[in-house]
Amino acid sequence: MVDELSGSSTPAPPEAKAGADAPTVLVVDDEPSNLASIEKIFQRDGMRVLTAPSARAALDLLRGHRVEVVLTDLMMPGTSGIELLRAIKQLAPDTEVVLMTAYGTVETAVQAMREGAYDFVEKPLKRMTIIKSVRKAAERRSLVAENRSLRQELKLLTKREIIGSSPALRRVLDVATQAAPSSATVLVLGESGTGKELVARYIHDHSARRHGPFVAVNCSAIPETILEAELFGHERGAFTGAFARREGRFAKAAGGTLFLDEIGELSPSVQVKLLRVLQENEYEPIGGDTVRADVRIVAATNKDLRAEIAAGRFREDLFYRLNVIAITVPPLRARREDIPLLVDHFLGVYCAKNNRGRLEAPREVIARLLDYSFPGNVRELENVIERAAVLCRGEKLSVEDLPESIRESLAAAPETITFSVGTPLDEVERRLIRETLRYAHGDKSVAAQLLGISTRTIYRKLGEIEG
């Protein structure tokens, strides 16, 4: 067996010490002499080696060790190599498997590959052949793991979530959750930067169309002269410059959701065509025939559409078609208790994006952010945290890392609470705790300090009140 594995009569190379990044290979064979020979070969090549005389012993080792590659005999008493391969893919899906056998046939090789084997080597084994096969299997596992890690990192940097637990935000999500399974058109209202597109994506992700495309169109970002063609598409030769047929956004969103942001910017002619889609579920590409519209429309605007109707800039019948279910996203100043959660989320995103250690936001920084009105809403807060993550020189943010407008913002004065004579003490306590919590932006530890009681007492009193 040693002669076969060596592949020549030259002396075997000296054993190399396994490095920190050396792969671990698990060798499975019911013949002790084969195990010993293969173990020495891999050790001399600088790999970490584990050995097992049976499938059961191999699986026990896999449960307690990280193994990059399993090299297993195909024909073993009890559990075969193919059966072991299936068990490995259940227990450790990322581990690559190389099968070795003296009974190699094309059918066996094909079956092994279908079951997830990386490679198939035949006996008599050659030392360089098995080293090359196992090395390549370990490289493949490393590349797959790296690719998965990069995808996760990319997902973290690109996926945008709705962050917060304030009552105002929960009310929005409650309505969105109820509306999502229906086919009703939804109109999302709110100031710029509040996260209207995130709400639209939330509706899509919780609808029956979630496996279809989500296509977003900013109606104010596309010139009026080409917006109709962008939305509905056009046929070749439909107008000057139309050298080829082009699908519109309605066609691209087929089976999914079309999000029309800044819907108040639509021209009168496009409003007419959109109204037909909402009424008849069909549209006509420019220069083309009628097409069935298989889309769910979610629209959004920061304009007062009723005022636009009064001014003659927006069709009233289109407004009522869009306004089947209206959701108003609250401005950030109406959900200040979500600011600490948003800060923590954005710090995680932008520290990872800029390849730096995770920063913390101390209490004084959070307090200054809570005192600021954020006219640009969540989008402005995100920009502030991205800037701070880039400019911060320590392990924690400081007030100096914030823009001047926020550093110089003044805290709002606490309100006065009045009670009528004879108000029960329970009612006084209830209102005092709730108003103090509101002033402290939901921070129970701050509220407890202001009231001169322990945080535990706040939790207990809240429990009594809510009970």
Automatic annotation (TrEMBL):
<protein>
    <submittedName>
        <fullName>Sigma-54-dependent Fis family transcriptional regulator</fullName>
    </submittedName>
</protein>
<keyword id="KW-0804">Transcription</keyword>
<dbReference type="Pfam" id="PF25601">
    <property type="entry name" value="AAA_lid_14"/>
</dbReference>
<feature type="modified residue" description="4-aspartylphosphate">
    <location>
        <position position="73"/>
    </location>
</feature>
<dbReference type="InterPro" id="IPR025944">
    <property type="entry name" value="Sigma_54_int_dom_CS"/>
</dbReference>
<feature type="domain" description="Sigma-54 factor interaction">
    <location>
        <begin position="162"/>
        <end position="390"/>
    </location>
</feature>
<feature type="region of interest" description="Disordered">
    <location>
        <begin position="1"/>
        <end position="23"/>
    </location>
</feature>
<keyword id="KW-0238">DNA-binding</keyword>
<dbReference type="InterPro" id="IPR011006">
    <property type="entry name" value="CheY-like_superfamily"/>
</dbReference>
<dbReference type="InterPro" id="IPR027417">
    <property type="entry name" value="P-loop_NTPase"/>
</dbReference>
<dbReference type="InterPro" id="IPR025662">
    <property type="entry name" value="Sigma_54_int_dom_ATP-bd_1"/>
</dbReference>
<keyword id="KW-0547">Nucleotide-binding</keyword>
<dbReference type="InterPro" id="IPR002197">
    <property type="entry name" value="HTH_Fis"/>
</dbReference>
<dbReference type="Pfam" id="PF00072">
    <property type="entry name" value="Response_reg"/>
</dbReference>
<keyword id="KW-0597">Phosphoprotein</keyword>
<keyword id="KW-0805">Transcription regulation</keyword>
<dbReference type="GO" id="GO:0005524">
    <property type="term" value="F:ATP binding"/>
</dbReference>
<dbReference type="GO" id="GO:0006355">
    <property type="term" value="P:regulation of DNA-templated transcription"/>
</dbReference>
<dbReference type="Pfam" id="PF00158">
    <property type="entry name" value="Sigma54_activat"/>
</dbReference>
<dbReference type="InterPro" id="IPR001789">
    <property type="entry name" value="Sig_transdc_resp-reg_receiver"/>
</dbReference>
<dbReference type="InterPro" id="IPR058031">
    <property type="entry name" value="AAA_lid_NorR"/>
</dbReference>
<dbReference type="InterPro" id="IPR009057">
    <property type="entry name" value="Homeodomain-like_sf"/>
</dbReference>
<dbReference type="InterPro" id="IPR025943">
    <property type="entry name" value="Sigma_54_int_dom_ATP-bd_2"/>
</dbReference>
<keyword id="KW-0067">ATP-binding</keyword>
<dbReference type="GO" id="GO:0000160">
    <property type="term" value="P:phosphorelay signal transduction system"/>
</dbReference>
<keyword id="KW-0902">Two-component regulatory system</keyword>
<dbReference type="InterPro" id="IPR003593">
    <property type="entry name" value="AAA+_ATPase"/>
</dbReference>
<feature type="domain" description="Response regulatory">
    <location>
        <begin position="24"/>
        <end position="138"/>
    </location>
</feature>
<dbReference type="GO" id="GO:0043565">
    <property type="term" value="F:sequence-specific DNA binding"/>
</dbReference>
<feature type="compositionally biased region" description="Polar residues">
    <location>
        <begin position="1"/>
        <end position="10"/>
    </location>
</feature>
<dbReference type="InterPro" id="IPR002078">
    <property type="entry name" value="Sigma_54_int"/>
</dbReference>
<dbReference type="Pfam" id="PF02954">
    <property type="entry name" value="HTH_8"/>
</dbReference>
